[in-house]
Design brief:
Two copies of one chain form a homodimer.
Chain A lengths: L3 E2 L2 E4 L13 E4 L3 E2 L10 E9 L27 E11 L9 E7 L3 E4 L5 E3 L17 H13 L7 E4 L5 H12 L3 E6 L2 H9 L4 E4 L5 H8 L2 E6 L3 H9 L1 E9 L17 H5 L3 E4 L2 H22 L6 E5 L4 H10 L5 E5 L4
Parallel strand pairs in A: 10-11, 10-13, 11-12, 13-14, 14-15, 16-17
Antiparallel strand pairs in A: 1-4, 2-3, 5-6, 5-8, 5-17, 6-7, 7-9
Helix pairs in contact in A: 1-2, 1-7
Chain lengths: 342, 342
């Protein structure tokens, strides 16, 4: 077969605030690949099916010399992130054409991995689509389930405040907390999202753009657990309305991703209220909980007992637009890009 | 016997920054008591022997309407704090004249407690003096030992940074950490204190007034554990030089007690580095650890295997001066006021 285009999304320029599609990232069609003839040298040829677009990716769109918890994307190179791929050819033991793998994949249509060490073989529940395996059944679902299990110390009738409650992580946290008998206060940035959070069982759901978080927490708190996806003023408000020995699960701080993090105004409340703050990266706690997740959560997702929404875009060239939507919160549900059908 | 003076230290005016002896607090001799004739109504008459003066007390010298983790002192009323007293008379079962008690005592020479619920009977190891029972063998010792046991998750060869390392809490933390095989970086505010910390075994001891904390941590870190008695810039520096999954034991933030707390500059490091922050009040963890403390630590203190220093003042009228010294860090060793001999 003749070589075909191997589309890629390249990191082109460091953004100053929000990423700009076509400038921060560009869709490039200059590379090509001969799927039949390309030598694998013992490796695996993958066809990328779906790619996840997540809030944390903004932090990687930076100058290389700036240190952070994840490496910077390389200018001129493809982005990368969580995804699912189909094995087209394999020279690796234990991996064969037709298998599916999850991994941290470059944002390009076809890719050769030198071995299987960075890939995980994965089977799909026939009731779920591959997009869900980078969403509720994948990293965001893992994040919600595993960090809640590890850090929440939740007890029935406690009060939890969940931010970005309509997102893939927050919406799972709401449902897990309700199933465990907690009172749930949840925030998001549109009336549509508020309705979705209510439909998931949130006892108090509000639009943070039109309702003052501090007032809501004063009225419906104080809180025992805070699930933080936001940081900034909202974190300050949560601390001021926390009970003694409240647990703060620090999942992310999207308020600071585009233009800088705000300082924490009242760090003295940490000792004054005996607060417990838990930063984490899901990769470190996954081994402890992955079997329980697969046994407990996947069947509930497949049976509709745990609900989720997805905002699916089609085509690798949409990555830039989707990244911007995720930073602005204009997506509705887990943002996924379908790169190719099988 | 005729009535005698019952000296008291009264909270007289809210300070704007450092407390001012004679203005913030006044020593008052207007009250009197007849020790033989005063009716107890089923209670206990105490003669106060020693009182502890601690950094946290600054936070209670405030307007009553301002909320905080401990109640404000009442204007016109005696201060109160940890202390040891001798029982002069008792109408309570299980408590008799000649017994000794520990409790949260008003700052006055003689006091009647209505019952024994707020007092703990205490026996002294003959090799230790009563002053030590509000220091290394009391609340500060409890704080160091118990919070370390509960939160440090210390492992041999890890690196801990201890602030106010010459104080009663920090000096105990240094010694416990060294006994457990950690590398200890410790800071304090004078050359004399630096020498003391070195004599306790600190691997790196420095004067934060003349040496840049950030540079020390860059050179001798990164750190696995931070024992925070300081807050402010030092907390920021510790966060920037922390390893992934470092534990922050938030014991206090004396940099903010006189004039206001600084914000935390980089709260994003909490999730970026998976930091774990543990606020606590020793009273909540004491029940879990008090037996172990009495079995393990008291004998080591008595035998000189754990060292401590005390800065003892004599006379209830010295309380105001000692409070100021503790806030300014000019005391050398645990600040204790001996109110009376037995």
């Amino acid at each position: 077969m003749a070589p075909i285009t191997n589309g890629r999304v390249l990191f082109n320029a460091v953004p100053t605030d929000y990423p700009v599609p076509g400038k921060t990232t560009v869709y490039d069609t200059s590379a090509s690949i001969d799927l039949d003839a390309v030598p694998l040298n013992g490796g695996i040829l993958l066809k990328v099916l779906v790619l996840s677009v997540d809030p944390y990716m903004r932090g990687r769109l930076r100058e290389t010399h700036i240190e952070s918890y994840l490496p910077a994307f390389q200018l001129g190179e493809p982005l990368n992130g969580d995804g699912i791929a189909l094995v087209l050819r394999s020279e690796c033991d234990g991996v064969k054409a037709g298998d599916h793998v999850r991994g941290h994949l470059p944002h390009q249509e076809y890719i050769i991995f030198p071995d299987r060490s960075a890939l995980t073989l994965i089977e799909r529940d026939p009731r779920l689509s591959w997009t869900t395996y980078v969403g509720a059944a994948g990293m965001p679902g893992h994040t919600a389930y595993m960090a809640w299990a590890e850090y929440s110390k939740a007890k029935k009738d406690e009060v939890v405040f969940v931010t970005t409650g309509a997102g893939p992580v927050g919406s799972m946290v709401i449902q897990i907390a309700k199933q465990q008998g907690l009172k749930v206060i949840a925030s998001a940035g549109s009336e549509e999202k508020v309705e979705f959070m209510k439909s998931l069982g949130a006892d108090v759901a509000f639009n943070y753009k039109t309702t003052d978080t501090m007032q809501v927490l004063k009225e419906h708190g104080p809180i025992d657990i805070y699930w933080d996806n936001v940081g900034g003023d909202v974190l300050d408000a949560a601390m001021q309305n926390a009970k003694r020995f409240a647990r703060f699960i620090e999942c992310g701080m999207i308020s600071g991703y585009n233009g800088g993090y705000q300082p924490m105004k009242h760090p003295d409340l940490i000792f004054g209220k005996c607060l417990q703050f838990h930063g984490f990266l899901v990769g470190y706690i996954r081994p402890k909980y992955i079997d329980a997740f697969n046994a407990e959560i996947i069947p509930k997702l497949a049976a509709g007992e745990l609900r989720f929404t997805e905002d699916v875009s089609y085509g690798l060239d949409k990555i830039g637009d989707v990244m911007l939507a995720v930073q602005k919160g204009t997506n509705t549900g887990k943002a996924v890009v379908v790169v190719a059908q099988e």
